[in-house]
Amino acid sequence: MDTKTIEIIKSTVPVLESKGEEITIAFYKHMLGTNPELKNVFNQTNQKRLTQPRALAQMVLQAAKHIDHLEALLPSVKLVAEKHRSLGIKPEQYPIVGENLLWAIKHVLKDAATDEIIQAWAEAYGQIADVFISIENGLRDEVMEKGGWEDFAPFKVSDIKQESSIIKSFYLKPESGQPLPLHQPGQYISVRVRIPGSEYFQIRQYSLSDVPNEDYLRISVKREEGGDQYPEGLVSNYLHDQIKPGDTLEVSAPAGEFTLQSSERPIVFISAGIGQTPLMSMTKKVIKENPKRHITWIHSAKDADKLAFKEELTKLKEKAPQLKIHIALSQDTNKYEDIKRYGRIDSEWLEKLIESKDADFYFCGPTTFMSQIYNILIGWNVPESQINYEFFGPKGDLAIKD
């Protein structure tokens, strides 16, 4: 891009800060209205909750701010590209997105969106789209080179285990009978289903909850309560109520950047609710490959009935004395003997449990919980390079705003 185009893009930063979310809401509504086939890809719950438009608004804003050095956005781009590859986003869909994004800018800003501004953003979008397409093509090639598969493949549900009152584990084996490429602990897969009575496919992403192996993939799914306004339980309830051993599910190859980093520092896992799932895979991997590495796992659940993996946690502690598990429950049900605290995880309790702050921290759970943990760690001056976390859904911002 030339200097003039860059200046024009940067001049739109103030309006994107005030109108960005309005633009992206209009964008999704218009695009999905004129291209309804894309409803097979985009999570409609995220649309209704506005999490997807908000995430896109932040990415567009950051692109405008860093238009003269887009390489600063590469970590965020890689995260989104991983999700796109897992969802089956295709290069030919990018022009559709660009056309509708420019329409939304003009629709919201009206006369303020001059031809000059629209032309500058068209050029900028073209370059940004090329970056995404290049990275996603590379990810697809990498998956295939490692013995994976493109888009979705049929997997047989070989077993289902009730892990808690609201969580079930689904063991998935490829119908091809071929050995699976080993995924990285902490990664996720996309599951695509067509629910009876629904016109479109529904795709949801679930963390892999067991140690990598060549035989099966395991996801552990929380039944979401949902409701008429935000039907987030559409797929999870379908899996819980309708899917039985022997059924087939369509599954993408594993994806994701929330993986174990190369280090010998102690590990601290912190989770809440279904945030246990990626950390289960990580814990088993560390114990298997580095049995002397110290692990502290601090987990919060609403009550003992909703605490998953009780048997596995007990066996892991017996197998690995260097693993210390601390459970906090919001409600006192007296049904699980290993409860260390009744109430929420807070900074004071964490400090009592964590032997050294020079550790690698991994955490996952609801966004409000992760924001709390992130800001505690930043307050302790833990380096960003030692802080790792996973969003369930579109990526957000965990930092407390002044």
From TrEMBL:
Coiled coil: none annotated. One of its GO terms (molecular function) is nitric oxide dioxygenase NAD(P)H activity. Residues 1-137 form the Globin domain. This is nitric oxide dioxygenase. Belongs to the globin family. It comes from the Bacteria. InterPro entries: Cbr1-like_FAD-bd_dom, FAD-bd_FR_type, Flavoprot_Pyr_Nucl_cyt_Rdtase, FNR_nucleotide-bd, Globin, Globin-like_sf, Globin/Proto, OxRdtase_FAD/NAD-bd. Its cofactor is heme b. SUPFAM superfamilies: Ferredoxin reductase-like, C-terminal NADP-linked domain (SSF52343), Globin-like (SSF46458), Riboflavin synthase domain-like (SSF63380). Gene3D superfamilies: Globins, Nucleotide-binding domain of ferredoxin-NADP reductase (FNR) module, Translation factors. Keywords: Heme, Iron, Metal-binding, NAD, NADP, Oxidoreductase, Oxygen transport, Transport. Residues 150-261 form the FAD-binding FR-type domain. It catalyses: 2 nitric oxide + NADH + 2 O2 = 2 nitrate + NAD(+) + H(+); 2 nitric oxide + NADPH + 2 O2 = 2 nitrate + NADP(+) + H(+). Its EC number is 1.14.12.17. Pfam families: FAD_binding_6 (PF00970), Globin (PF00042), NAD_binding_1 (PF00175).
